[in-house]
Amino acid sequence: xxxxxxxxxxxxxxxxxxxxxxxxxxxxxxxxxxxxxxxxxxxxxxxxxxxxxxxxxxxxxxxxxxxxxxxxxxxxxxxxxxxxxxxxxxxxxxxxxxxxxxxxxxxxxxxxxxxxxxxxxxxxxxxxxxxxxxxxxxxxxxxxxx
Length: 146
Known about the structure:
This protein has three helices and nine strands. Strands 1, 2, 3, 4, 5, 6, 7, 8 and 9 form a nine-stranded antiparallel β-sheet that branches. It has one domain. The chain is about 15% helix and about 35% strand. By secondary structure, it is mainly beta. Strand 3 (about 45-50) and strand 4 form a beta hairpin. The N and C termini lie far apart (about 80 Å).
């Protein structure tokens, strides 16, 4: 068996990640599949690897230092999760050049995640980001309503 030394068997049950992180200039949003993949943790650590240009989230306890509020329990988490903590938004948006094209549009980056079940984490590679624009949501300004 020495000729096969260093080889690893390919797992046929490898999970397919459907997690997606969306970054705008004011929020870092994770789809519901991200919460499901991590087991709906109430808190996560947000980690950045500047040299590899990667962002990761890892489930943690609420008492952990730098824990960021994340998900509700599985039966109550019905929408995506928005993280608006200024330190998180600043650290993540530093990887991108986001320019809002107009007053009613928002520039964003969408990044698929790769699950890391052994670490209860998901890694998002900046190189995999897809750029896009979306219409602003919410109330219209008084001048726009006329």
